[in-house]
């Protein structure tokens, strides 16, 4: 090794020692935060605080360390710190290596214990019974629309939305050999196949497409069959030792899925919050117009409205509304109370930090 390289590596060792000392100092402070919270019964996991940390560091970063790596690095520092305060158990819609699993890892980091569940209702059940601190479920995709099962679960469940996660979805074509010419069948979840339909017609026109329960299950099947390929996430490829035939084969390359973190509590206001509510309006003329007035007259922005049939009675609809602001702020509270006057019932599903 030449002298210059040796000297530079020694410098890196010294800096790494300093980083480690600082990580330990930080961990001690986090343990003190944990003790303070124990006394005050505050939540250990505070997504708005985590977002504020990432944002502040991104803005203060003088470089050349890349700003977009800051969140990934600090995600793991915070995840390990939080595990010192309280070990986290998080249920997610499995199996391993689904997009929901990737979203859960992105939100909670690798120090949380992530537990796959067979269905969306099983995720709700784990959290409701206190067997998991939080749950992660998909709620809508930018191309395919809402995940109706998740919305339906909120009608029955008393659980709250604690945070949202926005994830860019990349559908990769994966196989053991990575050769197009070896592919005799393609497995995937029906939604993923639908999102890649045009690419498949143009590039693999005679190959049968086979629906399976999840993109992760597709990857598992492709891992056992040299003549098969799967459309799944890069994480699923890594989990099942598959190689990439082609990255991001979705017909619309801009593809995002929104996931919800569910919990027994609502987090305290964080400054950039949104509130989700569910309600059933009374059957009166002009009611659809009037139900928006409590928000428009207070200049509260509505970011989303969705309706689902009320299964108990035909032709009646439940509405899901997302509005800007936290339910503990007076304007939002008053608007929701006023909306309640037009409703047969109304339920606040949660106030939580807006994902950026
Ligand atoms: O500030 C807090 O409330 C903490 O618990 C500390 C900390 C951190 O490591 O910075 C850890 C977990 C929380 O989700 C947010 C931040």
CATH architecture type of the largest domain: 3-Layer(aba) Sandwich
CATH homologous superfamily of the largest domain, by name? Answer: Periplasmic binding protein-like II
CATH class descriptor name of the largest domain: Alpha Beta
Count of helical regions: 13
Order of helices and strands: HHHEHEHEEHEEEHHEHEHEEEHHEEHE
Bound molecules: prephenic acid
First-last Cα distance = 46 Å
- Overall shape: globular
Percent of residues in helices comes to 40-55%
Low-pLDDT segments, ≥5 res: none
What structural category arises from helix and sheet content?
alpha/beta
The CATH topology label of the largest domain is D-Maltodextrin-Binding Protein, domain 2
Approximate strand percentage: 25-35%
Number of domains: 4
The tally of beta strands, per DSSP, is 15
The biggest sheet, with number of strands, parallel, antiparallel or mixed sense and barrel status, is: 6 strands, mixed
Topology (SSEs and partners):
Blueprint: H1 3-40, H2 47-60, H3 67-85, E1 89-93, H4 99-108, E2 113-117, H5 120-128, E3 134-141, E4 145-146, H6 148-156, E5 160-168, E6 172-175, E7 185-188, H7 190-195, H8 197-203, E8 209-211, H9 215-223, E9 228-232, H10 234-239, E10 243-246, E11 256-263, E12 273-281, H11 287-290, H12 293-296, E13 302-309, E14 317-324, H13 330-340, E15 343-353
Parallel strand pairs: 1-2, 1-3, 7-8, 7-9
Antiparallel strand pairs: 3-4, 3-11, 5-11, 6-9, 6-10, 12-14, 12-15, 13-14
Helix pairs in contact: 1-3, 2-3
Prephenic acid is lined by residues 30, 33, 44-46, 49-50, 53, 78, 81-82, 85.
């Amino acid at each position: 090794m030449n002298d210059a390289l040796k000297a530079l590596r020694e410098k890196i060792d010294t800096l790494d020692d300093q980083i480690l000392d600082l990580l330990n100092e930080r961990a001690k402070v986090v343990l003190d935060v944990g003790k303070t919270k124990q006394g005050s019964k505050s939540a250990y996991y505070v997504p708005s605080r985590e977002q504020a940390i990432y944002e502040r560091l991104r803005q203060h970063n003088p470089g050349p360390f890349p700003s977009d790596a800051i969140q990934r690095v600090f995600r793991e520092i915070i995840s390990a710190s939080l595990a010192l305060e309280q070990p986290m158990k998080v249920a997610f819609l499995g199996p391993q290596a689904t997009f929901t699993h990737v979203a859960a890892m992105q939100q909670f980091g690798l120090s949380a214990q992530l537990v796959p569940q067979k269905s969306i209702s099983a995720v709700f059940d784990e959290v409701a019974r206190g067997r998991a601190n939080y749950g992660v479920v998909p709620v809508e995709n930018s191309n395919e629309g809402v995940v109706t099962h998740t919305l339906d679960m909120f009608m029955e469940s008393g659980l709250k939305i604690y945070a949202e996660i926005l994830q860019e979805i990349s559908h990769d074509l994966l196989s053991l050999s990575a050769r197009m010419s070896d592919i005799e069948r393609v497995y995937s979840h029906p939604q993923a196949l639908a999102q890649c339909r045009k690419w498949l017609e143009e590039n693999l026109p005679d190959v049968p497409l086979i629906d399976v329960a999840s993109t992760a299950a597709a990857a598992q099947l492709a891992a056992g069959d040299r003549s098969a390929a799967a459309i799944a996430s890069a994480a699923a490829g890594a989990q099942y030792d598959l190689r990439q035939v082609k990255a991001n084969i979705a017909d619309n390359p801009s593809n995002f899925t929104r996931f919800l973190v569910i919990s027994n509590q609502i987090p305290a206001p964080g400054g950039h919050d949104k509130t989700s509510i569910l309600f059933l309006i009374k059957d009166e003329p002009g009611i659809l117009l009037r139900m928006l007035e409590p928000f428009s007259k207070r200049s509260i922005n509505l970011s989303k409205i969705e309706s689902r049939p009320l299964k108990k009675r035909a032709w009646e609809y439940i509405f899901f509304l997302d509005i800007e602001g936290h339910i503990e702020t007076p304007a939002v509270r008053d608007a929701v109370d006023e909306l309640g006057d037009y409703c047969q019932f109304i339920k606040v599903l949660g106030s939580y930090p807006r994902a950026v």
